Amino acid sequence: MLLGYFDSVKPNPALMLRQGEGPPLVLLHGVLGSGGMWRRVVPMVGRHHDTIAPTALGHRGGHPPTARPASIVHVVDDAERLLDELGLETAHLAGNSMGGWVALELARRGRARTVCAFSPAGCWPAKKVGDGHASRVLRATVRATRRGRPILPLLARFARFRRWAMRLNAVHGDRLHPTEIVELADDLLGCTVSEDLLSTTESLAPLDPAPCPITVAWSEKDRVLPLEVDGAYARELVPSARFIVLKDVGHVPMFDAPEAVAQTMLETTAATDHRG
After folding, report:
1. 34, 116, 170, 229: which could join 166 in a potential S-S bond, CB 3.0 to 4.6 Å?
2. For the chain, give me the number of helices (H) and strands (E)?
3. Beta-strand pair 242-246/112-118
4. Domain assignments of the chain as residue spans, ordered by start
5. Tens digit of pLDDT for each residue in 53-71?
C-alpha cells in the first residue's frame, strides 16, 4: 500500500498538506525540505487534529522571499502570515530542525497553544552558525546531491544506497521509498534560500518562562545537531520544557520513526487543559 502511494507522488509538491479535524496542529519542516517531509506523520495525527503541513518561505513549493538575504525572522514572519490567512490566532505547533526553531519563535509571539520541537535549530551559542558543523555538513550535502541527481532514480532503487545517502538525517534510510529519496533531493536543490539560511548569524534567545507547554525531543543519533552539544544547550535555553530523547533515530525522526513522532506530538497537545 505504501509503495503504491509513493509511486504516485507528483514531482512538484503542494504549498501545504492538510488532513483531519479538530484543534489545529501546524507542522513545520527543516531547512532544505518541504511540507512533504511530514507525509508519513500527517495521517496519524490527523485522526485528532486539523493537521496542516506548509512549505517554508523560499523552499520548493513555498512562497518566494521578498527580501534577501532571507533570515529566520523572515521564515517566522511567513509562518505567522499563514496562521493569519487560516484564521488561526493560535495553534498547536510542531517542527523539526529549522521548523522547531520557527515553532519556538512563534510561541514567543504568542501564537502557540503547545510546541513540540524535534532537534530544533538555533540552539547554539551566539556565533556564526555559517562557520559551524551543521552548516558545513549541509553545504556538503547540497554539493553531493547536485552532482548525483542525474542518476539518483537508478541508485535509489537499492536499499544500501538509500541508507548511505540518508545517513546524515536518518538511521534507517533504507526504509524510505526510492520516490521519497528523489523528492527529497529535488526539495533540497529547489530551495532558493539555502545559502542565506546556512549563513545566518541568528540563534535562539532564551525562552524562560515558557509561554505554553513545550516538549523538546532530541534525536539520539543526530549527526547534524548532536545531542551532547546542541541538545545540552537547548536545555539551558528552554529550561522549563519537557525534554526527551528519541531512541535510534536521526536528525529527521519522521524518516525513522513516524509513529514515535506522532505519539510525542499527541502527548504534547494533550498537555493543554482545554482543546478547542
Report:
1. 170
2. 12, 7
3. unpaired
4. 2-269
5. 999 999 999 999 999 999 9
The catalytic residue among 97, 135, 194, 203 is: 97
Q: Is 97 a catalytic residue?
A: yes
Q: What is the pLDDT of residues 85-94, one digit of tens each?
A: 999 999 999 9
251 annotated active-site: yes
Q: Return the C-alpha torsion angle 93, 99, 100, 104, nearest 10.
A: -60
CA distance 57 to 34: 10
DSSP classification of residue 175: G
Place of cell 525572522: 73
Complete DSSP assignment for 107-140: HHTT-EEEEEEES-TT-S-SS-GGGSHHHHHHHH
- Which H or E element spans position 146? helix 133-148
Q: Are 23 and 237 in contact (CB under 8 A)?
A: no
